[in-house]
User: What shape does this take?
Amino acid sequence: MQPFTLARPASLEEATRLAAAGAMPLAGGTELLNWMRLGIAAPARLADISRLPGLDAIAPLPDGGLSLGALARLNDVAAHPAVRAGYPVLRQAIHKAASAQLRNLATIGGNLLQKTRCAYFRAEESLPCNRRAPGSGCAALHGLNERHAIFGWTEACVATQPSDPAVALAALDAVVVVAGPAGARRIPLGDLHLLPDAAGAAADTALRAGEIIVAIELPGPAPRSAYLKIRERESYEYALVSAAGALVLDGRTIRRARLALGSVAMKPWRLPAAEAALAGLSLDDTAALRAALEPAFAEARPLSHNGYKVPLARNAALRVIGMIAEGHAP
Amino acid sequence: MNEGLGSPMPRRDGRIKVTGAARFAADVKLPGLLHAALVTAPIARGRLVALDPAPALAVPGVARVLTAADMPRFAAVTTPPMATAVQPMQDDVIRFEGQPVAIVLAATPEAAEAGAARVAARYAADAPLLFSGERAEVPSRESFYVFEEPDLARGDVPAGLAAAAHRVAARYHQPPRHHNPMENSATLAVWEDGRLTLHTAAQWTYGVRYGLAGALGLAPERIRVLAAHTGGGFGAKGYTWPHQLLAAVAAQVTGRPVRLAYTRAQMYTMTGYQPEVAQEVTLGADAAGRLTAVRHASVSNTSLTDDYIEFAHAGSAGMYATPALQLSARMARTSLNIPMAMRAPHEGPGMFALESAMDEMAHALGMDPLDLRLANHADADPSDGRPWSSKKLREAYGEGAALFGWRERPRQAARDGHWILGTGMASCIMTVFRFPASARITLRADGQVVLEAGTQDIGTGTLTIFPQIAAGELGIPIERVTLRHGDTDLPETGGTFGSSSTACVGAAVQDAARKLRARLDGIAALQPASLGAPAEAPEALLRRAGLADLSAEGRYEFGRPFDAAGHAGSHAMRTFGAVFVEVAVDPELGLMRLRRAVGSYSVGRIVNPRTARSQMIGGITWGWGMAAMEASVVDPALGRFLSKNLSGVAIPVNADIPADIRIHFVDEVDPHAGPLGAKGIGEIGAVGVAAAVANAVFHATGRRIRDLPILPEGLLGAGAG
Assistant: This one.
């Protein structure tokens, strides 16, 4: 780790000004400090935003939605009565993320800005990785890519986005509110993370220089929703594949479906065509549900070692619908 | 007095371990301490062409950068006690990724780390050498790692197979797996008046002394090695590694105390790992299931410079009665760092193959897998016909099966929602390793007893068991016994590895205590108490005799030549057991979870049932990791372990381990293995588990998995239709 200076901005405005001047915002610290230890980032200055007042509030919105302050700790979000009652998919996704200790420190805003868990990117020294060292190539493209993308990759980068809450928030059509030197703006969660481009692939998100996430806004409740995380061990592990689902039901009939997959692309992967095809289907007609999902996976492009992720992701999407149908969520 | 052999004494070190009061090697501080950070080669093979320390020296706080030019020339040493025959920083050849090429010394760990990142090194890289069974070679008997014959043949295997009614032939494979102890290895070295003192993470204090004495050309008595507590070993800290050698030299060159603590990434390249093992097992059996032939061949990877080999057939040499046995172990060189013994070496990988093949044979015969094992029970050592020192495996099978409900299990896989439930079992066997040991016991006139032995605390329970044995022998409460350990100034013992400490150091403790009692009896005979007086406490006798204290030294020895594995004795010594598991498989999602397990063991006398039970649960957990997730994958282009951290290498967490793990020990005393009647138990718990799990997966789904670990990719769609 390289020496750095630590600033403690007193206001959001000061924080964005510092960030625009190159300081990296520090909130829970559970991810940024890893980057610094590994040499993924070597900021000369950190701006500690963790004590900025008011940014950890969880409050109802006038339209019936819910605002999550960016500095709200993951476990506090999951434990909030409004999340518990209205957004089980988010609560479950948080409880499947990291460990209890990390969730007590990590913030919901910072969680969305996690970088990929690609082992080449996360190595203790710089290996061929365009995302870490632009122009150095992608060792995973023809290397060990069992855990890598099946959607939206380029030859420059085949990594995936690892956040569990992001997948739930994508299925919920959440909006990320950011503050920056040029003022505030709203970014739909589906537009926050960037797929790799053909060359550099270095930018993770649509955030501009100096912009800081201040809140995540959820539309109205999605009480029939659930999150499924698949991994070889039971806890404290990133997903091989995850699936978030939110349904609006009329009896046993799906009126509206929203589905997002995790760990299959560099962003949470919504399935709009499948969502449309699911509308009007019965929860009890498994064959029809499967058929509605199938076309989305025909578009998958597996790598040399991750072909299994295609059927796994399809089965996960189908299962999460089943979890909602069986009342795994209230 | 219920505090001796067989009493379930709670751990005496429990409180200091969970409160953080226990001090480990990297916790030791000395004035003037320099912190060392290693610069390591990023290539698997080749040459160090140039190295410029100047940018590191510019970092504030950096005092010195040591390169190969600053190193003394190390003498040739045996392996073990040195882990590797070729020591680092002696030339410009790179033999594995992660090899140290420079040491940065600084006033703070942060400055040393920043300096190490700035050392400018250039390399000429050659292509890495990857594992290939095609390049298998016979190991050199010069290496002490080659403690078994690479080939063993008895009877006529081709004839046995030709005569068999049923044959099974299959290949099995497992990837490298690392030890991943909680504590990263660390050493603090300091020289005073030509004497070297090390505080270090070690499973064998005396081994570190001998290793460094050899490499540095010093008399062993001039080296003191201290290891108060070692934060998990599993084989990673058994021998002498670069952190010990390089810390010692850096302290010598600078004239200051030096602390060298590995990073987690360095644990993956400078403490060994269980190698990649490819195996082929061929079994023949008659119509009644009696084996007619067993053939077991294995190849494991080793480094470019050392002949470490995994004797995967070690279990097959002793497990089943068969008229024909053909076993071979080979090694294949790779440009990886040296592998190393890891809980459970040899039998651990090997029994995955043998016990999977036995399950395949049971299926071919239409026979209960337990009945197949019983039908082939070896009443004598199948490799040489010697009688067993003790063996109650039949009881272990029967009592374990009853605890599990094996005979009542559903013959068809059961369903629980999306989960399919399967049951599987496997036999367990482990070599009994023994090392000489000594101990001293001192009774003071105030009634306190001090027990002294150089042995180590690696978390296995030795801090409880040795005082327990002493207290039991002397007939005093354990609270009055203090153990001094982890120091080469104390009586010599062997390493805490090979499941040997309780039986061997414990025997020396027992001997010391009995000698002390004999001396007390001698004093009492010379100075008899008045007739009719109540029984006299030993410390009262000391006071009456005017003695401040009384000591005795005890030993555990056995015949020369040194024969740790007991090949030369009149009796064959092994530990045995059986493990039964129930696993749940969700084939749509590729998931597999452990529901419950029973481990039932025939391992001689149990000294402390509480710590013994913990050891076995730990072993089964270790085996579950082997079965379900552990793999240190090697990138073929880079020739390095891809992930060198615990977020990229999965090992089991608490949530993976069900509460329903039952441990059973058959009532047994081994009259030949040693005076305690005990044998080692540290490793056998990990044996057989992966096979039992794979066998349960087969029972659940009909899919036979022969490549470990059993991952979602391999389970997806299993049992469909």
Notes: The longest helix of chain A spans residues 309-325. The mean pLDDT of chain A is 95. Residues 5 and 14 of chain A are 16 Å apart (CA to CA).
